[in-house]
What does this fold into?
Amino acid sequence: MKPKILITRKIADEVVSKISEVCEVDMWPDEERPIPREILEKKVEDIEGIFCLITETIDEKLLNNAPKLKVISNMAVGHNNIDINVAKERGITVTNTPGVLTETTADLTFALLMATSRRIIEASNFIRNGNWKAWAPMQLTGQDVFGTTIGIIGMGRIGEAVARRAKGFDMKVLYYNRNRKHDIEEMLGVHYTDMDTLLQQSDFVVIMAPYTPETNNLISHRELSLMKNSAILINTARGGIVDEDALYQALKNNGIWAAGLDVFATEPVPFDHPLLTLPNVVTLPHIGSASIRTRIKMAHLAADNLINGVTGKIPAHVVV
Ligand code: NAP
Ligand code: GLV
It folds into this structure.
């Protein structure tokens, strides 16, 4: 008998076919909206594997309903939506999709950095709103990127890929990481600093660390007050790493110059969120890895992890 698994969103047919060869598949048919929690709680009762997204909270309560579960395959590299401690206690394998999204997410991070520093969204809206009456010397002037200093918090796969792009812009690259990365320092000529020095010296502060109890509100009032008034904060990691109230105050009171945000503490970010009222914030709906090719690769990798997990093989990317 094939193992029963649940896919929590409609995904590409080619990936579903691959999983169906090995598993009995139940797939939530909506592509845009998450499976309602009460339905998810019911559907996990007799499954051995779950293919889920960052929109599903896989917590103790859900796992209590899933006595047969062997593998949780998250179609993301970040896995803060899953209680990995409870999963580990119960011998459930948790997998993720690192690597295949690294370059795409670094591209988006750099796009956000460029858009924020050079006010691309404001400038585009300036024309569309009929405000371009004449060229003017200081019109829509922003901050330089080339030759400035970038500080990367979290020098992992994506942090390193951002550093490589920054070197192409002749930027001085500072980084702060839990463990020092001598190999990357040697390879890319990046400089390790403590976090306060990074915040004080950087023109761009880019967050690329995972969301954990340790990184919750890592950037709050004190950290923002250390940054230059001309500095820009970019967050493509997870919203909860930045204290959004403190960020709003810093942006409103010219404590820092601008912010580029792909992620929010609550997603989707509420339409009336104060940060959305500020002209010096560029906001994106969590699209870091959203290229067609990369999302398909992520789905295949998550499928392979799932299949291996439910058939007793060791998946390629095990978190716990
Ligand atoms: P990774 O290779 O695991 O890199 C994370 C880095 O952060 C590691 O070098 C790690 O250091 C460091 N770190 C962990 N805790 C830290 C702390 N408390 N202080 C400082 N550094 C810390 O992961 P990745 O593939 O680069 O992905 C990073 C994160 O990006 C993911 O967790 C995810 O949340 C986010 N992400 C977002 C998108 C998006 O669509 N916006 C897309 C992909 C990823 P050690 O090596 O010492 O552990
Ligand atoms: C997306 O946010 C991911 O962690 O892959």
Observations:
- The mean pLDDT is 98.
